[in-house]
Amino acid sequence: MQALVLSGINQPVTLQNVPTPTPGAGQVLVQLHAAALNHRDVWIQKGQYAGLKFPIILGSDGAGTVTALGEGAPASLLHQAVLINAGQGWGSDSRAQGRDFRILGLPDDGTFAEYVAVPAAAVRAKPAHLSFEQAATLPLGGLTAYRAAFTRGQVQAGERVLISGVGGGVALLALQMVVAAGAEAWVTSGSEEKIARAVKLGAKGGISYKTEKWPATLTKQAGGGFDLIIDSAAGPGFNDLIDAAAPGGRIVFYGATQGDVPELAARKVFWKQLSLLGSTMGTEQDFADMVDLVEQHQLVPVVDETFALAEGEQALRRMDEGVQFGKIVLKIKAAK
């Protein structure tokens, strides 16, 4: 098969012929039609990730067709169109992943390839209303967004929700999900164009986080503080989120792209009775519930741009530039 292979830190991914995997006991072989990029892929390429190993086939997100079954895999999965849960081996405690938890694309070869072998329990039927390219955007980003908003954030209809850094795949999926749940969503971004596009997806409004004292302006515009805030940046701007939160509010953060918070406004946290909640990926049940939500509300993820598998390095550079609105997708094989 053909696959994009990363041979070392700061090396470009290259299209190579590699052995097609054979599904082991309890596994299925998925012929991939599409795969989606995540920042994780860029961080691995730059050497900014734990447990590096080379050569490696990157890619955590994928959708395709089951073409072969390992021993013990359910026969009903053969020839089924599926999407793949990128997180595997969560463990028995739903509160946090166990030591055996792993994400597809490192340490195991991932989805930037024509085929991938994964546990049968990691696949779920592709929502019929989505193309393979759209479905491929869901696994890691959709799971992260769902757990942040629902499992950890406990979003309720009618609540005001703020989603920071809209434009990235997880933030946009979180926006679509909370709007579907009946919440009132607001956004921040460094781009006025991205805010305008978010409004078209259902956001009530937004503001540039470059605006001086933006929390006061936005909470006035929204009619009050935010019951739930979903963030991926952390860093020096985290205290702005504390200012924007309503008394008794929850701040869920699933990333720290701007680094650690240098000086937490602890007094405001306890005086406002805030809950700070960490979240990442999700359980198998979170994954199933996320797909159910997408099907129930016929949600369509936003695809930023589609590249051929051979253009994988170009796609990674677009991800690295941070200019995308939605998910970047590799089209691997046209669905028959």
Report on the architecture of this protein.
The protein is of the alpha/beta class and 336 residues long. It folds into two domains: 2-138 and 301-331, Medium-chain alcohol dehydrogenases, catalytic domain (Quinone Oxidoreductase, Chain A, domain 1); 143-278, NAD(P)-binding Rossmann-like Domain (Rossmann fold). 27% of the residues lie in helices and 27% in strands. The protein has ten helices and 18 strands. The chain has helices spanning 39-45, 132-135, 139-152, 169-180, 192-200, 214-222, 238-244, 266-271, 284-297, 312-321; strands at 2-6, 14-17, 27-36, 56-57, 61-69, 81-84, 87-88, 102-103, 115-119, 123-125, 160-163, 184-189, 205-208, 226-231, 245-253, 275-278, 303-308, 327-331. The strands form four sheets. Strands 3, 5, 6, 9, 10, 17 and 18 form a seven-stranded mixed sheet that branches. α8 links the parallel β15 (245-253) and β16. The chain is globular, with a radius of gyration of 20 Å. The relative contact order is 0.16. This is NADPH:quinone reductase. GO terms for molecular function: oxidoreductase activity. Residues 8-330 form the Enoyl reductase (ER) domain. It holds the Pfam family ADH_N.
Summarize the structure.
It comes from Hymenobacter actinosclerus. The chain is α/β, with parallel strands linked by helices and 336 residues long. It has two domains: 2-138 and 301-331, Alpha-Beta Complex (Quinone Oxidoreductase, Chain A, domain 1), CATH 3.90.180; 143-278, NAD(P)-binding Rossmann-like Domain (Rossmann fold), CATH 3.40.50.
